[in-house]
Amino acid sequence: MLSTAARIRRATLALKAESAYGTDPWVGAPAAGDLVPVDGPTPSEPRGFYRWRAHSGLLDSLPGTPGELMARIAASLRLRGKGSAYAAGVKPEADLILRPLGFSATVDATPGSEKWTYKAPKAPTHESLAAWFLQENADTLKLLGGFGDGALLFTAGAPVVLDFSLMGIHGGRPAQALVTSQPSASPIHPILASASFQIGSENYAAAFRSLRINLNNIVSAIPGPNEANAYAGFFITRDPDRPITLEFDPQAVTAATFAWFTKWGNGTLVDWSFQTTGAQYTRVKFSGTKAQISGLGWGEREGDRTHPVVLDLIGDSGEDSLVITFD
Asked: In the chain, what is the straight-line distance between the N-terminal and C-terminal CA atoms, in Å?
């Protein structure tokens, strides 16, 4: 093998909260403790390019002009608790990612029942993130002032995965050697089983194979003609036609068992909740007190009839359409 090969397994992602928007929080390079054990980190550098369409009487192309530049990093993270009692300085691995995805974060340090609770969509100022993508034998990409969008992916019997994409100010490509760190092997990631899934006032335990929660954030850019790459920053906003949604494929049942079509037609509000396996400080819980069926259909899964459902997640007291609890 060539010693200059840029092996994709020899790449890491360092994350750190910013104390001042768009300002690199690291003094020097990231350390091993800044690495987050993500799967498949993928950088990109979206850039405007303006082709020159001047008429010359010829059919040859003319040189264009490179324009504005931003940074983007996508990856996925398996969810698990910290494995020990939570406190202000003891947080789940997902903490740094959930905040720039528009979640609020609150710790309850009551002895014996410590927990971190994350709620979306947060309305006040969101917390920005800095990221360094480090690659063996290739450039490092620095992202500043990052915010993002994401989705939670659930499959019966499998770990829960948070897919996310961060967008931010292009902070350059510093010369930096790869930083590595062996992730903690414990606790083992919990799976979607013994989930106590329930929906509606009937507490119906729907049988399904897969479920997906889409945050549907919109990350917008602030133009910056005085900035080197023509972007002053980014922010999270929302489209009222794109709420947070929960999509899953419950087994088809009769109306007497659970009246999906009646609830859909009446616009009935339903609550829902479920959790992963795992002991205290390992498990993760997901819930919402109000949701509405916005889409319902007919499908099949391995010969079994299903009713693919789309739930629009709705706030109860505000900024709580989706609640994730690590306890």
From this structure: 46
The structural domains of the chain, with segments of one domain joined by +, span: 11-47+67-326
* 179: DSSP letter: -
d(CA 122, CA 218): 13
CA distances from 240 to 218, 237, 245, 265, 312 (A): 11, 10, 12, 21, 11
Separation between Cα atoms, residue 28 and residue 199, nearest integer Å = 50
Calpha distance 203→244 (Å, rounded)? 22
Name residues whose C-beta falls within 8 Å of residue 220's C-beta, 6 or more positions apart in sequence.
Answer: 234, 235, 236, 237
If you write DSSP's letter for every residue of 101-153 in order, what string do you get?
GT-EEEEE--TTS-EEEEEE---SPPPPEEEEEEETTS--EEEEEEEEEEEEE
317 by Cβ neighbours in 10 Å (0-12 / 13-18 / 19+) ranks as exposed
CA separation for the pair 7, 158 (Å, rounded): 27
Report angle CA 50, 52, 57 to the nearest 5 degrees: 160
> What is the rounded CA–CA span in Å between residue 74 and residue 248?
24
pTM of the model: 0.95
pLDDT at residue number 246: 98
- In sequence order, which residues have a C-beta less than 8 Å from that of residue 320 and are 6 or more positions away? 119, 288, 289
Answer yes or no: is pLDDT of 131 > 60: yes
**% of the chain exceeding 70 in pLDDT:** 99
